[in-house]
From TrEMBL:
Residues 1-31 form the signal peptide. This is Sugar hydrolase. One of its GO terms (biological process) is glycoprotein catabolic process. Keywords: Hydrolase, Signal. Residues 315-779 form the Glycosyl hydrolase family domain. Residues 127-147 are annotated as: Disordered. It comes from Thalassotalea marina. Gene3D superfamilies: 2.70.98.10, alpha-1,2-mannosidase, alpha-1,2-mannosidases domains, GH92 mannosidase domain.
Length: 798
């Protein structure tokens, strides 16, 4: 694969404005097919996760869509800890809030960090405000009170009544565009505020530069660069109203207010400009607002459509005219729903209303990212800041890999396998364009944030390849893996290679980094071995044993070690400190982070009985808040187990490795019953771009990918009576749980396609070939099933 060439193709804005594109409207399925097709969208509640610390958003989005059009509430008030409020509003919206400041076009789903919120739009009546105001005093700004009683959300659609303005706001999207519908039910005159300063990042203006151009009395082009989590992130907007505005104000609060002075009254020309510099009005600065006025707003609903591009104004307009050629809101909404209907039908499930709501909402959240980051003409902005064109793949962004390598990406290999190769190719062009010769770590919108640890892109690539998803350059992938894993500029890789661990006097979070590098090295070994590169595989299998170098047998825990071999004298297995030896966790949790070699870990801890006792202690020993107060992410606690954060996600399944699967069955039910629900606060912590949701989906089916890349799934216990996974090539893998009930949480016996299954794991081939996995459930544990060493999940050293 060659590095993709940069292109800087100029286009005529006038031509794009003058011609309505007749492509891009998906063909609707015929009526008979619609009748036969199940509609699992009815089980999705986008409000699940918008309360508590779930950090999801309720607005409109299509599967893997570039646009996430959603309300922002941003309720920062006096007497409230600003840092907590910033964390609370990572997705822009929180269910506890009572006012809305507007609707912006980009949002993260379930992250623990804030950014995005591009181009906030807010309709209003009466006095014009250019600031959002406060939750305590909504009348001081353009924000409006609202009630959840007059708010709705479903896949591809959002609606709310803005009480202060008597406006009904409705939202829907295509992949690259957002469509607003505002019905004014109060005063005759109305206006629409467009705020280029609004940002979901510290609730402050983080705009580096912005501009807006009035092209005609229905069309605007805008741009902004923001300096948030991603530095100097660029986005372009094409904005079009369904009818001409009567007046427009371009407000530059860097300097002075600049009004239209009648130049775009209704009787003036609607002739489009042919080039950007011919804009009728233009302003630029760091504090730009636009107000479009409509004198008879009640005459008919006002629609606003917005196209986004990270490349150029021309591309934003081309995206808009291609994907939204008309003003048919109901058609766009129906097509968005149809996309979700198709995607959600990958799973058929039986269960209670609450169980199905949780399952399908989890699938809905899991199918939002990584998201498309490419214009309709194939152009995208690369991590090098240049413009590239993808000719043989779709380019994606938003790789929250420390979270998502664990379960989301393995899930996508089944529920969206057609997307996975493109996602991997997107990682590979990131590597090619990176000045650091690195695969993505935590990247979005053409920026590497260097957030979190490890180099988990290698796990995603290896797992997909070993499952037969191979439509990418394998040799390039191996080179990218090796360059990443040996990169002398990343964290403490030279020290890791030199010592076999990361010394705590060289880098904080040293133990967690060592453990995660070791797992990643295991996946590189697996990939190299599959390519026939045995020498490379042997080297990385050796590196995959590095976890042993931070295990202190004198205390029986993973422990920080300095470059002279001395153990951390201030060791406390319960303590989770910022800049300490562990990442968003403590030694109780991270001692179990050897997912690829559990049998050797069991030996280190002292055998099956000691390992089981350690697991019990993890779940039963109460964790003092004082020990974890520096980390908001450590949430959803059962003892020391923190389901709200990723380092704990595999641990309940490790009873299987000690020959006690019935204990895993107990723990999975305990987690499901106490730490998840179908309410707005139904997530125990950040959904983390779908990882929490993917955990739920796998665990509801009764198995989980403890170590992606080894092609096995550790069996827990199914939580719904029947779930079918509709696979590629018209195959179906069905899990049945006969006799399942609140009391019957234990596995009595298991059959795979009619044959008794004694092992406490299934394989990728078992799933991919299709068939039926049948569980007989009981109120009493079967303490012999899966207990023999040969029936336990695979382990690298066994």
């Amino acid at each position: 694969m060659q590095r993709l060439a940069s292109v800087f193709e100029k286009r005529s804005l006038g031509a794009l404005l003058a011609v309505v594109c007749l492509v891009g409207v998906p063909t609707m399925a015929n009526a008979a097919n619609k009748e036969a097709k199940k509609d699992n969208t009815v089980w999705v509640d986008p409000f699940i996760g918008t309360g508590g610390d779930g950090h999801t958003f309720p607005g409109a989005v299509v599967p893997f869509g570039m646009v996430q059009l959603s309300p922002d509430t941003a309720a920062l008030s006096r007497g409230v800890d600003p840092q907590h409020e910033i964390y609370k509003h990572c997705a822009g919206y929180h269910y506890d809030d009572h006012t809305i400041i507007g609707f912006s076009h980009t949002h993260f789903s379930g992250t623990g960090h804030s950014d995005l919120g591009d181009l906030l739009i807010m309709p209003g009546t009466g006095k014009v405000h250019t600031k959002p105001g406060t939750e305590e005093d909504p009348d001081s700004g353009y924000r409006s009170r609202f009630s959840h009683d007059r708010e709705q959300a479903s896949p591809g659609y959002y609606m709310v009544e803005l009480d202060d303005y008597q406006i009904k706001a409705e939202l829907t999207t295509t992949t690259r565009t957002g469509l607003h519908k505002y019905t004014f039910n109060g005063e005759k005159d109305g206006h629409v505020v467009m705020d280029l300063t609004s940002s979901i990042y510290n609730f402050k203006n983080k705009v580096v530069w912005s501009d807006v151009r009035v092209i005609d009395n229905q069309t605007l082009l805008a741009y902004r660069s923001t300096n948030g989590w991603a530095k100097h992130r660029e986005m372009y907007f094409a904005i079009k109203f369904s009818r001409p505005f009567d007046r427009i104000e371009l407000i530059n609060e860097d300097n002075a207010r600049y009004r239209c002075n009648g130049c775009l009254d209704a009787g003036k020309s609607n002739k489009p400009s042919t080039i950007v510099n011919d804009a009728i009005q233009f302003t630029a600065g760091k504090d730009i607002k636009v107000v479009a006025h409509f004198d008879d707003a009640k005459q008919a609903p006002l629609l606003v459509k917005v196209g986004l591009s990270a490349v150029s104004r021309s591309n934003a307009l081309e995206n808009l005219t291609t994907e939204l050629p008309d003003w048919n809101f109901e058609r766009v909404r129906a097509e968005a729903k149809e996309q979700w209907r198709d995607k959600l039908n990958v799973i058929d499930a039986e269960g209670t209303k609450a169980e199905k709501r949780q399952l399908y909402t989890s699938l809905y959240h899991a199918l939002q990212a990584p998201s498309v980051y490419q214009d309709v003409n194939g152009e995208y902005r690369g991590v090098d800041g240049e413009i590239h064109k993808a000719t043989d793949f779709q380019h994606y962004t938003l790789f929250s890999l420390w979270d998502t390598y664990r379960a989301l990406h393995p899930l996508l290999t089944y529920v969206a396998p057609e997307k996975v190769s493109d996602m991997i190719q997107s990682m590979l062009v990131h590597y090619q364009q990176s000045y650091d010769d690195m695969l993505p770590i935590w990247s979005f919108h053409a920026h590497e944030t260097w957030t979190m640890i490890g180099y988990h892109a290698v796990s995603v690539i290896a797992d997909a390849y070993l499952k037969g998803i191979r439509d990418f350059d394998h040799e390039l992938a191996l080179k990218a893996m090796l360059d990443t894993a040996n990169n002398p500029k990343y964290d403490a890789i030279p020290e890791y290679i030199k010592y076999g661990y990361v010394p705590m006097d060289k880098l904080s979070e040293s133990v967690s980094i060592t453990l995660e590098y070791a797992y990643d090295d295991f996946t590189i070994a697996r990939f190299a071995e599959a390519l026939g590169e045995q020498k490379i595989a042997d080297e990385f299998y050796r590196r995959a044993l590095s976890y042993k170098n931070v295990f202190d047998p004198s205390v029986g825990f993973m422990r920080g070690k300095d470059s002279k071999g001395g153990w951390n004298p201030a060791f406390d297995p319960e303590e989770a400190k910022l800049m300490g030896p562990f990442t968003e966790g403590n030694s109780y949790q991270y001692t179990f982070y050897v997912p690829h070699d559990a049998q050797e870990l069991i030996k280190l801890i002292g055998g099956d009985k000691a390992f089981e006792q350690r697991l019990d202690t993890l779940f039963e020993k109460e964790l003092s808040h004082e020990k974890i107060k520096e980390h908001e992410d450590i949430a959803g606690l059962i003892g020391q187990y923190a389901h709200g954060n990723e380092p704990s996600h595999h641990i309940a399944y490790m009873y299987n490795d000690a020959g006690k699967p019935w204990r895993t069955q107990e723990r999975i039910r305990q987690i499901m019953d106490t730490l998840s629900s179908d309410k707005p606060d139904g997530l125990a912590g950040n959904d983390d771009v779908g990882q929490m949701s993917a955990w739920y989906i796998f665990s509801a089916m009764g198995f989980y990918p403890v170590a992606p890349g080894n092609l096995s799934y550790s069996i827990g216990a199914p939580q719904l009576p029947k779930i079918s996974l509709n696979l590629a090539k018209n195959k179906t893998f069905t899990v049945e749980a006969k006799g399942l009930s609140k009391a019957n949480k234990y596995i009595k016996s298991v059959n795979l396609n009619g044959k008794t299954l004694q092992r406490s794991y299934i394989t990728h081939d078992d799933i991919q070939q299709g068939g039926v996995l049948t569980f007989e459930m009981s109120d009493k544990p079967n303490k012999t099933w899966g207990s023999a060493l040969e029936h336990r999940p695979p382990s690298m050293s066994r």
